[in-house]
TrEMBL record, chain A:
Biological process annotations from GO: peptide transport
Residue runs in coiled coils: none
Cellular compartment(s): Periplasm
CDD domains: PBP2_NikA_DppA_OppA_like_6
PANTHER family: D,D-DIPEPTIDE-BINDING PERIPLASMIC PROTEIN DDPA-RELATED (PTHR30290:SF38), PERIPLASMIC BINDING COMPONENT OF ABC TRANSPORTER (PTHR30290)
A single MF term (Gene Ontology): peptide transmembrane transporter activity
Protein family per UniProt: Belongs to the bacterial solute-binding protein 5 family.
Gene source species: Roseospira goensis
GO cellular component, one term: ATP-binding cassette (ABC) transporter complex
Main subcellular location: periplasm
Protein name: Peptide/nickel transport system substrate-binding protein
Annotated Solute-binding protein family domain residues: 81-411
Signal peptide: 1-33
From TrEMBL, chain B:
Sorted UniProt keywords: Cell membrane, Membrane, Transmembrane, Transmembrane helix, Transport
GO biological process, one term: transmembrane transport
Family: Belongs to the binding-protein-dependent transport system permease family.
Lineage: Bacteria, Pseudomonadati, Pseudomonadota, Alphaproteobacteria, Rhodospirillales
One GO CC annotation: plasma membrane
Protein name: Peptide/nickel transport system permease protein
SUPFAM superfamilies, A to Z: MetI-like (SSF161098)
Membrane topology: Multi-pass membrane protein
ABC transmembrane type-1 domain location: 73-262
TrEMBL record, chain C:
Pfam families, A to Z: BPD_transp_1, BPD_transp_1_N
GO molecular function annotations of the record: dipeptide transmembrane transporter activity
Name assigned to this protein: Peptide/nickel transport system permease protein
Keyword presence, Manganese: no
Organism (species): Roseospira goensis
Sequence ranges assigned to domain ABC transmembrane type-1 in this UniProt record: 95-300
Length: 505, 288, 321
């Protein structure tokens, strides 16, 4: 049982030598440029599974949207609605019946043909009683779904829905196969230009070009999504060339290094992420507009963007994305003015040091870092802040659903989501019938100019009411090999569409 | 080794005592004075290198690194002290009880110990954090719970030896109760061993606290902690390696000081003078 | 011996039952709803209810506990709430990262620590001894995760010899895979080697003073010969004790090191599963970890008997000192 030691020692020495050799052979050889038709894309979070119709995680769409799965319509790089599996469509005059004409040359990755039956199945599956679609609300207006023939789909609505075509372009509305829907979580089968190869859990998902794709063949023959949660590791992976591209680089502090390096292109774009300091209106004195305004004046947005985001981000004064045509700059309604903040608090009958508030911070660094800065800024006007870091599970359960918080920082990343302020019993508890009426009008308005005007009114109401602390719009920090082209600058939807990506010679 | 009856702490022990003393003094001073307010942010001056105003530079919020390191000492020491106190407070009585009563009670205490050992301390900390949220209290609980079986084991082992000694037998014959004997005769005789063990556990607790804070499970802002400083510094590794090196050095110096002090104390206090008598487990407290 | 064995087995089984009850109870009261986490902020109550039903969260508590334990006993693993695959399928590739990492670091720790300890003991009081003890004193004081950061700084950031983190997978070949594990293994191993060196040194010193060693010397064996022939076997007992404990703590240590080096191992899986409230994965992993620790301790006890015949008679109380 026990080896005589000298022999064991020799063995240990041999083992060590072997290890040293292994380590030496493992050293990277001279840098060789990868084959010019594959791509390694870095992502921060790993998707929990790969079925975009059964989960809210953005990481799912970031891998499969437009690559593996396609919908009837799709959202383009500029945020516009484009035809996808539906070539064209007609809308009845009352806006209640949509007739979609489907492409006839589409096959799923398992070889089965895509027909109107699959489309009916996909939509009915999302609408069913036992549906686990995270965005079931997208389909709320849909009353009936039927196949007129193999390639014609008729969707009947119970009320006009101005955003139906847009909604059908979401990742949650992609088309799935009758035969393969149940296994999409681990083996996604879609109609897109890339098919799933394998998923090494905890590390990466591999895709390859699908030879029978209906559209023009993509330039890439294969793509790998690698999951690297740590910002420092992301920077190291970029510098080492292990990763070719990051659509959303997690470490703004590292961008300066990459910008100086000619190998990389740093492309700063826009996202739909309005970062807000949400205030719980159910908890006095946060129901008092003067107190909320005081909080707004206490916050210095430029310091936040500088300190938390290293300069990347755009200040916002209401809940609306600055790149949208209907955006109004309302930051001047709540400028950084500690004196005014103290005066407003005094007016509301709050003596310095009397107000103590909790601040729930979910894990992303934009929230944690902004939170620390805001706590200090509020402290400067006499509001004591207790920081409570939480995981998403707790945030969703306690703050979002249980309304158990005073303040919290979160980025609302869905496009045009100003309507959340009209929801009943939403987590920050804002209640304004005038705003609700405005949103109702918006829902039934289809004229673009009229809609833009309504959006502008809505933004102004939120700023006037100082509903929340409006901080900044998250920037999309794209970093990729300078020889790459075709990656999206902005992210109107959470996606990494690789269809048009290619290496320049 | 019995011939080496050292009456003083020895050189290493004295160095350890001086280092530990210095860290404690820094921690105490930080209560009343630091060069800057460790929480004061100055974003315009972030990631600045060492200067006259900031001898060790500033971090990503422009906070003074030297002040943060000073304030971090007091968090490290406070958390570790309370955690070890908790572990000793529960573990020593359990160990004394087990040694005094033997039988099923002894068996039960030891099996409970096994159960506690079967859960790596870090896992316990992760679960406690999920349950109660992160914070210094969580770190104290997780480290403290891990220390209970350590103290119970060491106390029981040392106490069993004392129970066999003649003066205890004499006390028993004189009709003294087991509880009295434990307190009057056993405890004073194992105090040296326990003090040495406490010093070592204290060093391990400093490491554990740093590990937990590094993972985001320990004390939270605006409280400063060496572990969290390291965590935050990691993303600036390419920009400001200084930020990742300094807090680590602070931890090493503190732990080294405590370990040297522990060795010195062992030579002086532990009646067995046996380097293995002290439970030098690599401890989940330290590694996990 | 058989009786002792049986007693230890029963104790191990009881520990596992207690561990399973404990972790199940903790997970039961944990704030956070796994279904809400999957479906996010726009989830509607009916979809949430449907998902919770399909996750099996609506069954009575006692029933869920029994189904779980029953499944474990039959060797069947439940399906992860987030990943949608059985826990063993999820675990296997992670074990292929954490296992080799633990073995590699334990190997490195033994290969460094034990020879250094023996050398220090053999040269007691001389400069070699002082140097070994000094370095090991420092090694014990270094937090492994900080050592990891320093190694990254030196070998990955400055020298660019080795990757800063991540794991290419074994199919990339043993070279790149081992290269990815080398720094984390070193970070775990060096502090452990320091402990091993200290324990080995004092154990060997102890043995050198024993009667049978003097007898061996009297027979004409040199100090070194006597040590190899008679001493080391006895000196190994405390070393093995520490090794057993170290293995358990290495498993735990991998949790923190996997975070530093971004390795897709068991530790990261536990961390992720807790934050995603994947109760199914967490409870299985906790029980498996507790079982591993229990089995390793058990093996350590057995090895005492193999190393020291006297302990066979005394009956398994070697750990109780």
């Amino acid at each position: 049982m026990v080896l005589p030691l000298p022999r064991a020692r020799r063995r240990a020495a041999t083992a060590l030598a072997a290890l040293a050799v292994a380590a030496l052979t493992a050293l990277p050889g001279p840098a060789t440029a990868g084959p010019p038709d594959t791509l390694v894309m870095g992502m921060v979070l790993e998707p929990p599974h790969l079925d975009p119709t059964a989960g809210a995680a953005a990481a799912i769409d970031e891998v499969v949207y437009a690559n593996v799965f396609e919908g009837l319509t799709r959202i383009g790089p500029d945020g516009s609605v484009q035809p996808a599996l539906a070539e064209r469509w007609e809308i009845s005059d009352d806006g209640l019946t949509y007739t979609f004409h489907l492409r006839r040359d589409v096959t799923f990755h398992d070889g089965t043909a895509f027909t109107a039956d699959d489309a009916v199945f996909s939509l009915q599956r999302a609408l069913a009683d036992d549906s686990v679609n995270a965005q079931k609300g997208l389909f709320a207006a849909i009353d009936s779904v039927a196949a007129l023939d193999g390639y014609t789909l008729v969707v009947g609505l119970s009320r006009p829905e101005g955003r139906l075509l847009y909604n059908l372009g979401w990742g949650d509305a992609v088309m799935v196969g009758l035969e393969s829907a149940d296994t999409n979580k681990t083996r996604p089968i879609g109609t897109g230009p890339f098919r799933f190869v394998r998923w090494v859990q905890g590390d990466r998902v591999e895709l390859e070009a699908f030879p029978d794709f209906w559209g023009p063949a993509p330039a890439l023959s294969a793509a790998t999504f690698r999951f690297i949660p740590d910002p420092a590791a992301a920077l190291a992976a970029m510098l080492a060339g292990d990763v070719d591209a990051y659509a959303n680089f997690p470490a703004p502090e590292g961008l300066a290094i990459l910008e100086e390096d000619a190998r990389f292109a740093v492309v700063v774009g826009t996202t739909e992420g309005e970062t807000i300091l949400a205030l719980n209106h159910r908890r006095p004195p946060l129901d008092d507009p003067r107190v909320r305004r005081a909080i707004g004046h206490a916050i210095d947005r430029n310091t936040l963007i500088d300190g938390a985001m290293f300069g990347y981000g755009t200040p916002i004064g209401s809940h609306f994305a600055p790149h949208h045509p209907a955006y109004v700059d309302l930051t001047d309604r709540s400028p950084h003015d500690p004196e005014r903040a103290r005066a407003l608090l005094a007016e509301a009958g709050i003596a310095p040091g009397d107000l103590r508030l909790t601040l729930h911070l979910p894990p992303p660094s934009y929230a944690r870092r902004s939170g620390e800065l805001i706590a200090a800024q509020l402290g400067a006007v006499g509001v004591a802040v207790e920081i409570i870091p939480v995981e998403w599970a707790q945030w969703l359960d306690q703050a979002f659903r249980g309304h158990d918080f005073d303040m919290t920082i979160v980025a609302h990343t869905e496009p045009l989501d100003i309507d959340i302020y009209a929801r009943d019993d939403y987590y920050f508890g804002y209640d304004n019938p005038a705003f609700d009426a405005l949103m109702a009008t918006l829902q039934s308005t289809r004229d673009t100019a009229a809609r833009a005007d309504l959006y502008r009114q809505a933004q102004t109401i939120l700023a006037e009411d100082a509903v929340n602390g409006f901080l900044f719009q998250l920037a999309k920090l794209g970093v990729w090999d300078a020889r790459l082209s075709g990656l999206w600058r902005d992210s109107p939807v959470q996606a990494n569409d690789l269809t048009g990506v290619s290496w320049q010679p | 080794m019995a011939e080496r009856r050292v009456r003083t702490l020895g050189t290493a022990g004295r160095v350890g005592a001086a280092t530990t003393g210095a860290v404690v003094v820094v921690a105490l001073v930080s209560l009343v004075w630091t060069p800057h307010d460790p929480a004061a942010m100055d974003v315009a001056n972030k990631l600045a290198g060492p200067s006259l105003a900031h001898p060790l530079g500033t971090d990503h919020f422009g906070r003074d690194t030297l002040s943060q390191l000073m304030a971090g000492a007091r968090v490290s020491i406070a958390v570790s002290l309370v955690a070890v106190g908790l572990g000793a407070g529960l573990g020593v009585p359990l160990g004394l009880l087990a040694a005094a009563r033997r039988g099923w009670l002894d068996e039960a205490v030891m099996r409970l110990n096994d159960l506690a050992f079967a859960f790596p301390a870090l896992l316990t900390a992760v679960l406690i954090t999920a349950l109660l949220g992160p914070g210094a209290i969580n770190a104290i609980l997780a480290i403290g719970l891990f220390n209970v079986p350590v103290f119970a084991r060491v106390t029981r082992g040392a106490a069993l030896a004392v129970w066999k000694r003649p003066f205890v037998l004499a006390a028993r014959l004189a009709g003294r109760g087991r509880a009295r004997i434990s307190l009057d005769h056993v405890l004073p005789n194992i105090a040296g061993t326990l003090i040495v063990q406490a010093t070592i556990q204290f060093a391990l607790a400093i490491l554990a606290e740093a590990g937990l804070s590094y993972l985001g499970l320990g004390s939270q802002p605006p409280e400063v902690s060496w572990g969290r400083m390291l965590n935050e510094a990691q993303t600036f590794l390419f920009l400001e390696p200084r930020l990742a090196i300094l807090p680590g050095l602070a931890i090493v110096v503190t732990v080294l000081g405590l370990n040297l002090l522990g060795d010195g104390l062992r030579d002086r206090l532990d009646p067995r003078l046996d380097p293995q008598g002290v439970d030098r487990r690599p401890a989940g407290a330290r590694r996990g | 011996m058989a009786w002792v064995l049986a007693k230890r087995m029963v104790a191990l089984a009881l520990t596992l039952v207690a561990a399973s009850l404990l972790v199940f109870a903790v997970l039961e009261v944990l704030p956070g709803d796994p279904a809400l986490l999957v479906l996010g902020v726009n989830a509607r109550p009916d979809t949430l209810a449907a998902l919770r039903e399909s996750m099996g969260l609506t069954e009575p508590v006692a029933w869920r506990y029994l189904t779980w334990v029953g499944g474990l006993l039959r060797g069947e693993f439940a399906t992860s709430l987030t990943y949608g695959v059985p826990v063993d399928t999820l675990l296997a590739p992670r074990l292929l990262v954490s296992g080799p990492l633990a073995v590699l670091s334990l190997g490195l720790a033994v290969a460094l620590g034990i020879p250094l300890g023996v050398v220090a003991a053999a040269r007691r009081g001389r400069p070699t001894d002082a140097a070994v003890m000094g370095v090991s004193q420092l090694g014990v004081a270094v937090p492994n995760f900080w050592l990891g950061i320093l190694l990254v700084l030196l070998f990955a950031v400055t020298l660019r010899w080795l990757p800063a983190g991540g794991f290419p997978g074994w199919e990339a070949g043993p070279g790149p895979a081992l290269a990815a594990l080398l720094l984390p293994a070193l970070a775990l191993a060096l502090p452990q080697a320091a402990i091993l060196a200290r324990v080995t040194r004092s154990a060997v010193l102890e043995v050198l003073g024993e009667d049978y060693m003097r007898t061996a010397r009297a027979k004409g064996l040199s100090k070194t010969e006597a040590l190899w022939a008679h001493g080391l076997r006895n000196a190994l007992i405390p070393v093995v004790t520490i090794l057993g404990l170290q293995f358990s703590f290495l498993l735990a240590g991998t949790i923190i090191i996997e975070n530093v080096f971004n390795l897709p191992g068991v530790g990261r899986l536990i961390f992720q599963a807790v934050s995603q409230r994947d109760l199914v994965v967490v409870r299985d992993l906790v029980v498996l970890l507790a079982a591993t620790v229990g089995v390793v301790n058990f093996l350590v006890d057995l090895s005492y008997a193999a190393l020291d015949p006297r302990l066979r008679l005394r009956g398994g109380s070697a750990t109780d000192g």
